[in-house]
What does this fold into?
Amino acid sequence: RGLGDVYKRQQYIYLHFYKDITVEDVANELHIKTYTINSILEEYYFTSFAEELEKVRLRLSYTLLKITKLTILQISCECGFKSLSTFQRTFVKYNGISPTEYRNIKK
It folds into this structure.
């Protein structure tokens, strides 16, 4: 499997990130093994499926925090996080500040 699988995987994640998707969902959709997806992510991108999904979700949250007046809870739901606490914990993990602090800085 090659570069085409990488693009298809990425496309699937971007189209379904707001759902509760797993690496198995992507593998089934693309008719490839979960091992293949995990290997590509680890070898070429130095990341896991879960981390990649978090990053995609966070990218949208940055935009929503900057340009909307949605609450932090609404943003976490729109971005596919299972709970507000998961969103906040993930946000701090990657940014070192809370979503509220980020919003205040970016105003």
